[in-house]
Design goal:
β13 and β14 form a beta hairpin. This protein is of the alpha/beta class and 288 residues long. It starts with 6 loop residues before the first strand and ends with a helix. α1 crosses α7 and α2 crosses α3. It folds into two domains: 164 residues, 3-Layer(aba) Sandwich (Rossmann fold), CATH 3.40.50.720; 90 residues, UDP-galactose 4-epimerase, domain 1. Pfam families: NmrA (PF05368). GO terms for molecular function: oxidoreductase activity. It comes from Coniophora puteana (strain RWD-64-598) (Brown rot fungus).
Length: 288
């Protein structure tokens, strides 16, 4: 094992978090970054001497393992979206088969270790499977993507930023570019032993729903309305209801420990692993 990881593979590199992760890795000291994409994918990637693109079905364990072995991948990073979470069990099996040293599943939300119910419980199941087969993992807890503030506020569907009452519990927000930059930096500067079977708890800022709504309304000139429930007829209303409940629980700060059922405090954040980095605030992101 080398002093730092050098060869990475990314699944879902054309998505919201996949793009900044790929961009940052290609700008880092990594020697090779392999993108695994579906055979029917139309995603295009700019040529780069470090980049290799392989078309493979994510549910074909042997095919994925062969690609990972071919390139000597050390770290497999999954950035796939909600509909693909279940397929990560196959990715984990393929990674183990190929001798990958670290699997980064698609967490990229609030803490999920210890989750026992809800839409995101599959994330806990994926990590549990990796543990069973002896595959080291690293989970990333970043709260809400700051760029997706309009989604939880239902702005596109209502023309307003909706704040679910009471809206007084803080949660973490982190920009996509900061997540990508932080992962590329830590993955290529920290010793592998510091990355195995752990979690990164990061945040750009923590706000309450009411505070986020006020900032969004000010910067985007959008009316803000406090509501007691998800308005009837909203597309994907049940998903919005789930996330409203989660974000109003106080458990969506990146430093929250579901197992101990308490906030470990900002001293538990991993931001200090890159002490000189300037994290973007919600205003920084939304004012662009």
């Amino acid at each position: 094992m080398s002093n730092t990881f050098k060869v990475f593979a990314v699944v879902g590199a054309g998505g919201a978090i996949g793009k900044p992760v790929l961009k940052s890795l290609l700008s880092s000291s990594a020697t090779k970054v392999v993108v695994l994409t579906r055979p029917d994918s139309s995603s295009m990637f700019e040529p780069n001497p470090k980049l290799a693109v392989e078309k493979v079905k994510a549910d074909d364990e042997n095919a994925v393992a062969a690609v990972l072995q071919k390139h000597g991948v050390e770290v497999l990073i999954s950035t796939i979206g909600f509909t693909g979470f279940e397929s990560q069990v196959v990715l984990a099996d393929a990674a183990k088969h190929a001798g990958v040293q670290l699997f980064v599943p698609s967490d990229f939300c609030g803490p999920t270790e210890g989750l026992t119910e809800g839409l995101l419980i599959v994330k806990e199941k994926v990590v549990g499977h990796a543990k069973e087969i002896g595959l080291p993992t690293l989970r990333v807890y970043n709260g809400l993507f700051t760029e997706h503030s309009h989604v939880v506020g239902a702005v596109e569907d209502t023309g307003k930023f909706l704040v679910p009452n009471p809206g007084d519990k803080p949660f973490s927000l982190t920009s996509l570019s900061d997540i990508g930059a932080f992962l590329a930096y830590t993955f290529t500067t920290l010793a592998p032993s510091q990355l195995l079977n752990t979690a990164f708890r990061i945040e750009g800022e923590r706000l309450t729903f009411s505070e986020l709504g006020a900032i969004y309304g000010e910067l985007k000139s959008v009316p803000v309305e406090h509501v007691s429930k998800v308005p009837e007829g909203l597309p994907r209303g049940f998903i919005l209801e789930y996330f409203w409940k989660d974000l109003n629980s106080g458990q969506c700060v990146s430093s929250y420990d579901l197992v101990q059922d308490k906030d470990l405090g900002t001293s538990a954040l991993s931001n200090n692993l890159w002490a000189e980095y300037k994290w973007r605030s919600v205003r920084d992101v939304l004012s662009k």
